[in-house]
Amino acid sequence: MKKYLTVALMLAGTVVFAQREIDENGRPLGAKPSFTVSSVEDVYLAKSESSVAGSEIKLNYSLPSGVTSGKITLFHPRRDEELKSYNLNSETGTVSISLKNLPISTFSAGLYDSEGKFLKSFNVY
Q1: Does residue 18 surpass a pLDDT of 90?
Q2: CA distance 47 to 39
Q3: Which one of 12, 38, 40, 120 is most buried, counting C-beta atoms within 10 A?
C-alpha cells in the first residue's frame, strides 16, 4: 500500500509542479531569442575568385565599420617570419600579391587595424 501511495504522490507532484510555461532554454514558450546571429561577417579576409593562378593572388578584405586603415601582413606558414606587409587605406578592397616577390608560394595572411590589433587570418596554399 505504501508503494502505491508513494508512486501516486510522485506522479501527482510531477504533473502539478511541472514547468509547462518555459522551454528547454528557460524562455517563455513561443518567445524568440533575445538576439540573432548575423550570417554575414563584418570583418573578412578571403581569396578573390578572379585571382590569376600562378603569378598573382588577390585577397579581398573588409575592416570593421569606422576603421579606414590597416595592414595585411604575410607570414611564412611554418616559421615565425614576416614575409611582406601591405598598407590598407580603405574599409574594403582588394590587395594584389605578386608571388614572384615572395620566397615561397604558400603563406598565412593576417589582417590588422591601424592600431595593430589582430582581426582575421587566412591561409593561402
Answers
A1: no
A2: 19
A3: 120
